[in-house]
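Q: Please design a sequence for this.
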């Protein structure tokens, strides 16, 4: 894939996603609510509108070959760069899948072990400090300070959080 192809591909994908966000946000009020302010869909709608306009501008400039990227026939990514980026991309996809299955906190714990120990090649002390500390900080921030629960995965894992709930509530 060339840089030119990658530029138009990303612009088209983001334009489609922007249109989808605009359409979905119209399920909420995107106008002004008297004595209350903007409706619940206003912010995502206008943000997606801005994204769509930027994508259309990029596509327009791509057809006119205005930018160096729109004229470049060089490879989009080298094999060396792909070797660095691919494990990170795969790790993030696995984090998303693990979040659905075992919940955010256990997924982050496993993600930190994989990244800090195996990709970063740090010591086990550093790895476990971060692997335990990151979910604890996230739990305190979201569950306690913001009162916003994060996904906990399978309901069979819910009793693991009972002692923490007892501390908070």
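A: Design:
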């Amino acid at each position: 894939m060339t840089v030119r192809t990658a530029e138009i591909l990303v612009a088209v994908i983001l334009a489609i996603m922007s249109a989808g966000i605009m359409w979905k946000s119209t399920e909420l009020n995107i106008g002004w609510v008297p004595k209350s302010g903007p409706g619940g869909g206003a912010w995502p709608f206008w943000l997606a509108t801005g994204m769509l306009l930027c994508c259309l501008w990029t596509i327009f400039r791509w057809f006119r070959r205005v930018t160096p990227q729109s004229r470049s026939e060089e490879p989009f990514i080298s094999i060396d760069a792909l070797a660095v980026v691919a494990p990170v991309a795969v790790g993030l996809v696995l984090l998303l899948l693990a979040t659905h299955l075992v919940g955010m906190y256990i997924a982050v714990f496993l993600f930190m072990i994989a990244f800090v120990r195996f990709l970063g090649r740090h010591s086990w002390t550093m790895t476990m400090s971060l692997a335990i500390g990151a979910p604890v900080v996230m739990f305190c921030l979201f569950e306690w300070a913001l009162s916003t629960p994060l996904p906990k995965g399978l309901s069979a894992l819910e009793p693991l959080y009972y002692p923490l709930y007892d501390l908070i509530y």
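Q: Thanks. Anything notable?
A: The chain has a mean pLDDT of 91. The beta strands are 32-33, 37-38.
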